[in-house]
Amino acid sequence: MQTNFTPEQLADPHVATSEKILRKCVHCGFCTATCPTYVTLGNELDSPRGRIYLIKDMLENGRPADAEVVTHIDRCLSCLSCTTTCPSGVDYMHLVDHARMHIEATYKRPFWNRLTRNILAAVLPYPGRFRFALKAANLGRPFAGLLKRFKPLEPFGAMLDLAPRRLPKMPESARPGTHPASGPRRGRVAILSGCAQPVLKPEINAATIRLLTRLGVEVVAPAGEVCCGSLVHHMGREEQALEAARRNVDVWLGEVEKGGLDAIIVTASGCGTTIKDYGFMLRLDLAYADKAARVSALAKDVTEYLSTLDLPQQEARGLTVAYHSACSMQHGQKITMAPKVLLKKAGFAVRDPAEGHLCCGSAGTYNILQPEISGKLKARKVKNIEATKPDIIATGNIGCITQIATGTQIPILHTVELIDWAYGGEKPAVLS
Ligand code: SF4
Ligand code: SF4
């Protein structure tokens, strides 16, 4: 694609990066067919190619974002399905990240939209506040229907629908600290505790720590870690995201200095995608660029790391698992086979639901901010999953677990909970 940026515009490193990305797009439109919003809404401006044109026009003309651009960029799930499809290697992720920063800096959102986003950014990344908000949601639950009838308040209704009625207790085994390997130590890793996941499903990290320590790996859950920054990063709040990234870089590199780390284990693929991008996000920060790149190189999804441990084949369990590959797993991190290979080795029969490339509609805060499109995608996803007639659904991202669980009665678990069970861990409570 031809671009017309001036030398002054290209002096801005963000514009220079976006210009390089834009030039790679050849307008072929292959990406439209696999874009969930184009498939759902049928509007070119809700396709990757349409959004690329809108972003190009906005940046080239040095214009503040307007309502039209914001509408179509807000509808993008950042699922990155387009990056998997694109034959020209267009780096849509960094382009849309830049567009979101530009929107945040130049556009004044309507009051209710601004308020909702401010609340989400102030609550979700902080486990204490998030836990409190979920408890308070029980009081607001009877008003969910009423809120959803008034368009600007719809996101609050969506939040109440998603909030679980009861919150699990944090198991002792998932608390910060060092969890020594049982038997001879064959590795040492840090684990990301996360923000929403330890409140909604602390069993995921508990299962990971149990499994890894049984396999001879020491696991450190370092104190001082914060949310990976993904939630606010996707809202265009770059400074908040970069502050979180810097803090985590310091904490993890502190652990490297203390005892060495073979990997930083991430059990939520949405967070993994962002941490693997810290090197890019902090590339312009001279004090952190190299350190962030080291952290990104160490970050591994738990299934990526488990694949290096050569687990033995287990007997068949007579249970069928539908594997839902989160977008951040398959498109963001390009991890497609490892989770399924591990599940098969663990003795499960694995099914791939149709249209596996399409997002379930969770996408961070998307199911709160865009409940209508999100609801359509969830219904489509659940239909495809249920068609495989599984006993269990497995996936590697807490957002997808929360989203899909509100649409089906089939138990849904994190992949690592099933692997832990198969290799001597506790049977997940939901299957008992
Ligand atoms: S990230 Fe997903 S929703 Fe956004 S343009 Fe690409 S395919 Fe479409
Ligand atoms: S598939 Fe790639 S090159 Fe083709 S329109 Fe989409 S982003 Fe551009």
User: Which range best describes the helical content: under 10%, 10-25%, 25-40%, 40-55%, 55-70% or over 70%?
Assistant: 40-55%
Give the mean pLDDT: 96
Largest sheet: 5 strands, mixed
Count of helices? 25
Give me the count of strands: 9
The fraction of residues in strands falls at 5-15%
Unreliable segments of 5+ consecutive residues: none
Strand arrangement across the biggest beta sheet: 1-3-2-4-5
Write a structural description.
52% of the residues lie in helices and 8% in strands. It has 432 residues and is an alpha/beta fold. Strands 1-3-2-4-5 form a five-stranded mixed sheet, with helices on both faces. Helix 2 crosses helix 7 (92-106) and helix 13 crosses helix 25. The model has no long low-confidence stretch (mean pLDDT 96). Bound molecules: iron/sulfur cluster (2 copies). One iron/sulfur cluster binds next to helix 4 and helix 6.
Give me the secondary-structure topology.
Elements: H1 7-10, H2 13-24, H3 36-41, H4 48-60, H5 67-74, H6 81-85, H7 92-106, H8 111-123, H9 127-140, H10 144-149, H11 154-162, E1 177-179, E2 187-191, H12 197-200, H13 203-214, E3 217-221, H14 230-233, H15 238-259, E4 263-266, H16 269-275, H17 278-281, H18 289-298, E5 299-301, H19 302-306, E6 320-324, H20 327-332, H21 338-345, E7 349-351, H22 366-369, H23 371-386, E8 392-395, H24 398-405, E9 412-414, H25 415-422
Helix pairs in contact: 2-7, 4-7, 13-25
The protein binds iron/sulfur cluster (2 copies).
Characterize this entry briefly:
The chain has 432 residues and is an alpha/beta fold. The protein has helices at residues 7-10, 13-24, 36-41, 48-60, 67-74, 81-85, 92-106, 111-123, 127-140, 144-149, 154-162, 197-200, 203-214, 230-233, 238-259, 269-275, 278-281, 289-298, 302-306, 327-332, 338-345, 366-369, 371-386, 398-405, 415-422; strands spanning 177-179, 187-191, 217-221, 263-266, 299-301, 320-324, 349-351, 392-395, 412-414.
